[in-house]
Description:
The complex is a heterodimer of chains A (274) and B (266). By secondary structure, chain A is an all-alpha fold. Chain A is 71% helix and 3% strand. Chain A has helices spanning 8-29, 43-48, 51-83, 90-98, 105-116, 121-128, 140-163, 168-176, 181-192, 194-210, 213-219, 226-237, 240-262; strands at residues 31-34, 37-40. In chain A, strands 1-2 form a two-stranded antiparallel ribbon. The longest helix of chain A is centred in the N-terminal third of the chain and has 33 residues, at 51-83. Chain A is globular, with a radius of gyration of 23 Å. Chain B is mainly alpha-helical. Chain B has helices spanning 2-28, 45-52, 54-86, 90-105, 108-121, 128-153, 156-164, 169-198, 201-205, 214-223, 228-265. The longest helix of chain B has 38 residues, at 228-265. The termini of chain B are far apart.
Amino acid sequence: MKKTWTAYPYILWMIIFTIVPLGLLLYFSFTVTSSTGTIFSLDNFRRFNQPIYLKVLFRSLKLAGVSTILCFALGYPAAMFLAGRDLKHRNTMVLLMVLPMWVNFLLRTYAWLTLLERKGLINTILGAIGLPSLSLLYNDFAVFLGMVYNFLPFMVLPIYSILSKIDRNLIEAAEDLGANPFLVFLKITFPLSIPGIISGITMVFMPAVTTFVISRLLGGGQYTLIGNLIEQQFLTVGDWNFGSAISTVMMAIILIGMGFASRYETEQEGSGLW
Amino acid sequence: MVTKVLKRTYILFLYVFLYAPIIMLALYSFNNSRTRGAWTGFTFKWYLAMFQDRQIMTSLYYSLIIGLVGAFIATFIGTLAAFGINSMKPLPRIATMNLTYLPVLNPDIVTGISFMLLFIFIKLRLGFLTLLLSHITFNIPYVILSVLPRVKQLDKNMYEAALDLGATPAFAFRKVILPEIMPGVIIGWLLAFTLSLDDFVISFFNTGSGVSTLSITIYSMARRGINPKINALSTLMFVCVLSLLVIVNIMMSRQKKGVKIKEETR
């Protein structure tokens, strides 16, 4: 049964709708159009190399980095707890951790608007107990909160799936040899969980760098991250060449990062979504 | 004992953190007052207002049409492709699988923008058709990833036995192969439909001329601030996605059980 041909429509489809568009993106990022015509040029990248734009890039990387660290700090203990032996309803609890991932992320972000705004729940409670109201929205704090809230499950899940597969005998052997719990964690559990940590970091950091929705809704209109910059170039300014160049830089960062991370992800395929 | 209590408290705190905003969102959709701080009584009026809101209803219509049609086309192309990929030689197979993973790994915003560039380049007006085409494209890989394992498990001999017994290829396909791969196909379709409903970023860049999906409508309303109608809509969507997920999950675990039983009886 030779039926390789049934994949041809798909391959054709993907060439038209994936390869060609990415080719166009590269084409736009490496050209400039003036009255004399379109010529090859690195001007778009040179322009991106200016302090105002680099500042946006570094700000995005910093925000995504801090959010990733926060997710890790909150998520690792949670993953350890879920993987612990003395848990009765493990499957239900893991499912509860994963469920918010499937709620539309716009809605999850919007939910925080309701809580944080000036007349929102948190300020109402503060007012009721006689405290002055805080301005919680449209600042770094709100954006961090939105990111941690949206991406935390993506950190917990891969770490949990690695921790739950660790061979108990290794830990018992270490304990028999006289290691205290802290040393066991430092020498056995933590090193073995590194692949899970790396895939968690990838799954949080990558979408956090590229988001433009969380920063727009919780950071307000003036708050610019790299995603917002790209959106502006295409939808407001209309400078496709420059927008494409920024997108190219971002795509390069992400794909290189993914390639780097995938070297550590060996046997946990299929645990990605559930 | 103390550490156990600490652990419990910590995990409880995390679940509260994860669920409180969603629950508050749902609660406020029943609140009589427009200002969110105070609870002034139970009401269904925001749900009523939502169903009378033309913008929301049109975007619901577009979301469903694009989700249903897009998922069908993606499932059709993806299922066919899964057969083809399965019978490929290693090298082209790896190349095709890499092509399949590319849109899955690429950031949404880059995918969305590259589609937009293509549509404008070939002078296709942004609107319903471009939205549909982009949704089909980002859905096909997920269909392939859920159908391919099923196709790999197919027993070739069964199909050939059917042919030997006089079945036409089409009949043998319908009676032997299709029932075997069906669970994978249905999961692929449901996944595609869910992702299509859920997508915002790619739709945002590929829509135009008054065509809008629910996500886009929510975004444009949320940018203008809080609106209880969005709360009502969110609550409904949350309930729908939840039920869809429960269905998919039950089917997946049944499928796994089915595979296990089969392996054991072999």
